[in-house]
Amino acid sequence: MKDKVMEKIAGEITLSGHPGLTIRKWREYFGVSQVALAQHLGVSPSIICDYESGRRKSPGVNTVKRIVVALIEIDEEMGGHGMKRFSLTDKHDAIFSMREFSVGVVGTDFAKSLEAKVITGKDKLGKRIYGYTVIDSVRAILSFNASDYLRIYGWSSERALIFTGIRYGRSPMVAIRSHILKPAIVVYHRPDRIDELAIRLAEIEELPLIVTNLNLETMIKRLESM
């Protein structure tokens, strides 16, 4: 399990369009401070800060490997709580479906498969995504903690977050806006209507926002067939 986890985390960081943010995601997941990570690696905390903020050039493969190994080793020293929490199959009650793609799917093809209408960010749909998470919005609002929010990103933040139980779509975009980690695509499933603030926040974050009116069962079947 440990080797597979390390391989997947390293792969996500390497493939991410924002590797520094992905490093931060996993550092926070394991509850490791920048100072503790830097000390374990024998570098200045400012180097970790610069990687995460994007001020320093993206780390190479060997550096990524060292960072991932350090996170796991520190977690083990602290009792292994991060690894105990970690499960490839465990899902929160608010998550209907979650999957990683073996091969990236182009955003436009993803939207077409869901018969989705593009609300904003059509020009951002050309890049590939590497997974999706279908979230029950009401349950998420009532029960998610910080760790749960990180887990919806699975192995890669380059994914679609699909929100069901939407009325106006303001709350999901506010949550995305407030967190440093962002998805590649936001999907609203059968909203009553979309609040102008939700659209504005999507535009500020430069995120494609699309809407699908497929029923939930059909939507999940199409997602699983990709």
Summarize the helix and strand pattern as letters. HHHHHHEHEEHHEHEHEH
Global morphology: globular
Helical percentage: 40-55%
Termini separation comes to 26 Å
Spell out the CATH superfamily of the largest domain: HprK N-terminal domain-like
Give a description of the structure.
The chain has helices at residues 2-15, 19-29, 34-41, 45-53, 61-77, 81-85, 107-113, 137-143, 146-151, 170-178, 196-204, 216-225, and strands at 95-106, 117-120, 128-136, 160-164, 185-189, 209-212. By secondary structure, the protein is an alpha/beta fold. 50% of the residues lie in helices and 17% in strands. The two termini are 26 Å apart. Strands 1-3-4-5-6-2 form a 6-stranded mixed beta sheet. The chain is built from 12 helices and 6 strands. Strand 4, helix 10 (170-178) and strand 5 (185-189) form a beta-alpha-beta unit. Helix 3 crosses helix 4 (45-53). The longest helix is centred in the first third of the chain and has 17 residues, at 61-77. It folds into 2 domains: 2-85, lambda repressor-like DNA-binding domains (434 Repressor (Amino-terminal Domain)), CATH 1.10.260.40; 95-225, Udp-n-acetylmuramoylalanyl-d-glutamate--2,6- Diaminopimelate Ligase, Chain: A, domain 1.
List the helices and strands and how they pair.
Layout: H1 2-15, H2 19-29, H3 34-41, H4 45-53, H5 61-77, H6 81-85, E1 95-106, H7 107-113, E2 117-120, E3 128-136, H8 137-143, H9 146-151, E4 160-164, H10 170-178, E5 185-189, H11 196-204, E6 209-212, H12 216-225
Parallel strand pairs: 3-4, 4-5, 5-6
Antiparallel strand pairs: 1-3, 2-6
Helix pairs in contact: 1-2, 1-5, 2-4, 3-4, 3-5, 10-11
